[in-house]
Every structure is written in structure tokens, then in C-alpha cells.
Amino acid sequence: MLWFVCSSHSCLQAQLTCSFPFVPEEIEDVGEIAKRDRSHIEKTLKLNEDKPADDYSATLQRLRKIYHSSIKPLEQSYRYNELRQHEITDGEITSKPMVLFLGPWSVGKSTMINYLLGLDDTPYQLYTGAEPTTSEFTVIMHGPKLKTIEGIVMAADSARSFSPLEKFGQNFLEKLIGIEVPHKLLERVTFVDTPGIIENRKQQERGYPFNDVCQWFIDRADLIFVVFDPTKLDVGLELEMLFRQLKGRESQIRIILNKADSLATQELMRVYGALFWSLAPLINVTEPPRVYVSSFWPPEYHPETHKDLFLKEEISLLEDLNQVIENRLENKIAFIRQHAIRVRIHALLVDRYLQTYKDKMTFFSDGELVFKDIVEDPDKFYIFKTILAKTNVSKFDLPNREAYKDFFGINPISSFKLLAQQCSYMGGCYLEKIERAITHELPDLLGSIGLGKKPSVLSCDTTGCGETPRNRYKKP
Fold it and tell me: How far is CA 212 from CA 85, 93, 449, in A?
């Protein structure tokens, strides 16, 4: 059954002819559906330019060297991956920007990807329909020819950025699929289509940790499109959980109200207001996310709607996408620097816990009870306040205190060394190396892109090592 927000028979008929190129044979007599011009897509995304893609291999190689020599030793020594479950691989450092599509079922996520890539009526197109059609996480990437790759193969290939997905189990890998398509846009970006959110308790039994998998992709996405349509504006438990996972990534989120030409102007205004009403409790930020209102599919816009407005909205979204692609390298360096800042803060905290433990221990003390007291109430021993006072760390970058209860529950404090002991004659000190990467090496690498200028040497005193990198492609 197909549901529409429609007030007249003529509107319903127009939707059947405009919105669904996959109509069954018995109603194909309405004639061939007119397709809209795609020249604005090719122009905005620069798909017709013969200019070879910029070669960033030397910069990426330098970035990879900085990570392995200056960040990873401290990360491994203090087991940062067990705190945040975010392991950076070489494939992730060299990967293309990732655009993630999220939202309820049958709102047009797969159709939108087909439209952006021009895959409709080709052997490459993703399957679409009015019913829930995408049950897998589908990664659309570039390849010399059309090719489908099973999830177990993608996870086994260390050269790709998807090898860490193996930790979610074989049931999930059976729901992961890769599609290689010879398309110019995919030479610069990777799209990820996700299963639609279904607010039905029985259908939520997916057989794998759906929310954890979503979080993995959210953490690595450069741009996140959350897609809605006029018929699916209600917010249930699964959608609420999704927006909780998106917290902290607001600058990457773009809300899309799709299928906008299926409504008359007055109805569209009401739906737009209803969408904000539904999402307001879920997005707790001062600045609302950017919302695009259009219809992202090949058929021409409905003639009695605001075609010019929808086209401008579409071009604005394409410019947003192109900006992410153009700033790929800057964003990658900023991401590694932000990761380094978090690793440094984690190491300083573990060092502070360890130092406090050693200070409180006496010959007659029970080590387990002493450390339990420290972990249960770190404020009593000024653990976090000491870090803020002495190490140029922003209070907004400090991790949750509760997380360290779990962390030390599986990692005994005795298994760590003090930061002062993490030094060698040839390799130097781990802390000094990561601070040099944060304040000198990564900013210098960032400054060398494009203009070829080296930024002035910075220090923690002027920038604060706890500074969070600015999102460089966020629209003003």
C-alpha cells in the first residue's frame, strides 16, 4: 500500500506518474516519463573536466608516517582503542571522503544515489521501491568495471578502510556489500547506503549490532545525509537512538526533505514545520543543521510546484558535496590531529591515575581497594582538575569519567607505565613526539597544501593542545 500526503485525485495521479519510475506494467500507458536535465550536476561536481585528479600520495604518505611514528606508539601503550573503539588503519588514512545516507525506509536514499551518479536505467543502478528494499549496508565505490564484492572479502582486504568491520561478526558481514562502478565522481568520493530505519520492534531484530555498525560509519563519514520524505516524519525509538549517535557530528549533518514536489506549496510548508518540530528535541545545538528541500530523482519536477526553488536547493547540496571532496586532504589531516589530541588527553589521564595510585599506596595498603577508591571518585583526588590546570587541555575535550571505570575494569592499572618512563635514547619520549605532531608537524603539513606556504611554528601556549580542529568545509 502506498501512502501520500495529498488532497486531490489529480495530485495522487501526478505522484504516480512523477514519483515512481518503477510503476507496474498495468499503468505504463501514461507514457514515457520525462527526465530532467543533468547538466547542473556535471557542472557543479566538475564531472566533465578532463583535468587529472590531484596527486596527494606524497602528502598522504607523510601523514601516514606522522601517525605511525608520533601518535600510534602512545595510542598502543595506553590502549586508547579500548576506550573509544576507534582504530585507525592505513586504509582509512588514504581513503576517499565518505558520504553516508541515513533515514527511514523508502524515503529515497538509494534513488538519490542513483540520481547523483546517473545510474537509472543502467545495469549499475541500486534497486529501489516503495517497500523497504535495502537490507544491507551498501558501499558504492570506484572500480574499472562493474563488480560486486562480498562483505567478507571487503573485511579481509587490509588495503581497504573496511577491515575493522570484521569485529561485528559474520552475520553483519553477510549484510555488507560493496559495488564497484566505473564513474568519475566515485574516483573522488565513496557513498554508503544504509538499511532504512523501521520503527517496528519485531523488525529491529537484525541479527547484528545495528547501532554499533551505524556508529562506526558515522565516526568515519565526512558528510552525513539524513533523508526524510513527507510521509515519514514521525520519530520512534530507533530514529531517536540514531540522532543520539550523531551527537558531536552536527557540522557534518545535512537534513534532506525529499520528494518535495509531491506536495502543494501550503502542504509543503506544513510538512517542513512538522519536520523541525519532530527533530527539535533530537538536535540539541544552538545552530540548526542545514535542511535541503527538493526531489532527488530523475523525473521532471511536478509542473505546479516551485521548480526554481527545488533546483537551487539541489545545486546548493551539490556545492556542499563538492566542497567536501575539494577539502578531502585538509579534513583528513584535521581528523588525525583531533585523534592525536584525544590520545594525548587519554595518556595524560591514565598517567595521572597511575601517579595518584602510587602516591596513595603504602606498605600496608590494599592496592585493589586504593585504586577502586580513586576510580569511583576521581574528583576527590583532583584527577581531571590537575589535567586541566597543568597541560593546556580544554575542559570540553575531556572524556566521560564513567568511561574510565569500564576501562580500568579490563585494564589493570599495574599494566601501565608512567609517561616519564615512556622514553628511549634513540626514539625520544612518546609524549613529546605526539605534542610535536599536534603543534608542529600536522599544522605544517596542512599549511603546505595548495598555497605551498609553511605556517609559523606553534606551541601549546599559543594554540592549546586541547584545541579541537575547525571543520573546514562547514558552510558559514
Answer: 10, 21, 35
Contact 227, 109 (CB under 8 A): yes
Q: How much is the pTM?
A: 0.79
C-alpha cell of 97? 571522503
Is-contact 282 312, C-beta < 8 A?
Answer: no
Cβ-Cβ contacts under 8 Å for 39 (sequence gap 6 or more): none
pLDDT in tens, 239-294: 888 898 998 888 899 999 999 999 888 999 999 999 888 888 888 777 778 999 99
Q: Which of 147, 198, 153 is nearest to 176 (CA)?
A: 153
Which residue, among 140, 114, 139, 136, has the nearest Cα to 22 in the 3D structure? 114
Half-sphere exposure of 354 (CA within 13 A, CB side): 18
The alpha helices in 306-380, defined as continuous H runs, are 307-326, 328-360, 367-376
Question: What CA–CA distance (Å, rounded) separates 453 from 37?
Answer: 41
> What are the contacts of 113-118 at 24+ separation with CB within 8 A?
113/140, 113/191, 113/193, 114/297, 114/298, 115/296, 115/297, 115/298, 116/41, 116/185, 116/191, 116/296, 117/181, 117/183, 117/185, 117/186, 117/191, 118/38, 118/41, 118/183
Residue 231 has which C-alpha cell? 510521509
